[in-house]
Specification:
The protein has 87 residues and is mainly α. The protein has two helices and no strands. The protein is 92% helix and 0% strand.
Length: 87
């Protein structure tokens, strides 16, 4: 997660704690919600990174398959040409 997000969550948590302190009560559920939101943001960032890597790997696999099949086709064509020349 970018550091700006982390700083925002820290600021939000600190502001909430100060607000609760000023009001004279504590609400741990709110802090837990902030923590859960931060974890969700981390998971979304990880998911985006994995999706980007998946796209890159798919492109690489496609490129390698194309390279392999083009090499195979050219090899079989040269074999056919060799057979034709032998006749």
């Amino acid at each position: 997660m970018p550091e700006t997000y982390q700083a925002n969550y820290k600021q939000l948590r600190a502001a909430l704690e100060q607000l609760c302190k000023d009001a004279g009560y504590e609400n741990p559920d709110l802090v837990q919600w902030i923590d859960a939101s931060e974890q969700q943001a981390l998971k979304l960032d990880q998911l985006n990174a994995l999706e980007t890597e998946n796209v890159r790997l798919k492109q690489e696999v496609k490129k390698l398959r194309d390279l392999y099949y083009n090499k195979t086709l050219s090899s079989s064509m040269s074999t056919k040409l060799k057979d034709a020349l032998r006749e």
